[in-house]
Structure formats: structure tokens, C-alpha cells
Amino acid sequence: MSRTLVLVRHGQSEWNLKNLFTGWRDPDLTEKGHAEAKAAGEKLKARGLKFDIAFTSVLQRAQKTCQHILDCVGQSDLETIRDRALNERDYGDLSGLNKNDARLKWGEEQVHIWRRSYDVPPPNGESLKDTGARVWPYYLHTLQPHVLAGGTVLVAAHGNSLRALIMALDGLSGEEVTGLELGTGVPVIYRLNADSTVASKDILAD
Ligand SMILES: O=C(O)[C@H](O)COP(=O)(O)O
């Protein structure tokens, strides 16, 4: 019984590089982002991982990361489900703004609250709590059954949709999750017990 869940944040996007709030906008990966996604795939291949199914968002940076990983492990044609439930947190009116310009306009502290607090949404956007309210039910009803059936499941998604998922898996409080940062292209491997609790967590950082 594998019961393995692999989470990967997409590689660097054009807007990560330009330091813009991205959210539901759909920029492509940069060259570095493509390389990071391939490196993630190589790390998973080195572990001998083979997937039973893959999940990603409807945004191209996550989809391309997913495909690079599947190509690396020799599973280019694996069934892949794309769902907006895994999209990045909606950054609302901040989407497209430069993060440093936003700090100058609203102050360092307010921007940090919008980026990392648990339940303060940016104007017209989603808080991490709102993001979790769509990610976690999707995980429970659609993803987790594949894992508990003994599968190995790949999820290629986004910084905040994965932070929301990790918060729930790790049982972090709203305060604890503010310190959780996910690197681009860094695989996080969970193995679950039969009762769905976490047996182990392994972060494949460089
Ligand atoms: O949507 C974005 O801008 C990034 O993917 C994540 O942004 P953050 O680091 O501000 O949460």
C-alpha cells in the first residue's frame, strides 16, 4: 500500500520573476521555472516514484509543471485532472500589482497581512481560509480516496492552495501557517496511514 501524496508548487512564473501578485492570472513559466519543474521530476524519479493519477489547477504554470514531472518519470500520458479548486488563492484587486509598489502604497505590515495572514482577504480576493474552504473539501472528496485506495498521487498546484492543504494535513493553527513558505518546484511527499492521518512527511529541498 503506497498511500502517497506528492505536492509540488509550480516552478517560477513570469510574474514571480517580475514580483507581481498573480492569483488567478495565468502567466507562463520562465526558463528557470521550466528547469525547476524538470528538477522536481528528476528528484521524484530518483526516488522511484510512479503515479496512479495527477491533479493540477486550470492555470498553465501548474499544468506545465505537472507535465514536466510526468515526462521525467516516464508517464507523459498519465490521467491528469484539472480543477479550479486547486487554483492559486484569488488575490483580488492586488492581482497584477507589483509587491514592492503595494508595500509603498499600503505599508509593509498591511501587505504582509494580506499575503500571510490566515483570515484577512485582500480587497475582492480570497483569504487563505477562503482558499482552504475550496481546497480541503476537494482534497477530501476527490483526491484523498485515490491515496487511501493505496495509490500514489501527484498534485501540482500553487503556493497558497498548497499552504491551505498542508495547514490541514499538518494540523497547523492560523498563527502557525503564517510562517509556512513553499519553494517553487520543491516536492513534498506525504505518506498516509489507513485512517488518513499523516504517517510521514518528506520535503525534497536541494
Ligand atoms: O499569487 C502569487 O502572487 C504567488 O503565487 C504567491 O504569492 P505570495 O507569495 O504573495 O503568497
UniProtKB/TrEMBL annotation:
Q: Which CDD domains match?
A: HP_PGM_like
Q: In which pathway does it act?
A: Carbohydrate degradation; glycolysis; pyruvate from D-glyceraldehyde 3-phosphate: step 3/5
* Active site positions: 10, 88
In the Enzyme Commission scheme, what number(s) does this protein have? 5.4.2.11
Q: Which UniProt keywords apply?
A: Gluconeogenesis, Glycolysis, Isomerase
Protein residues bound to substrate: 9-16, 22-23, 61, 88-91, 99, 115-116, 159-160
- Output this protein's name: 2,3-bisphosphoglycerate-dependent phosphoglycerate mutase
Taxonomy of the source species: Bacteria, Pseudomonadati, Pseudomonadota, Alphaproteobacteria, Hyphomicrobiales
Identify the gene encoding this protein: gpmA
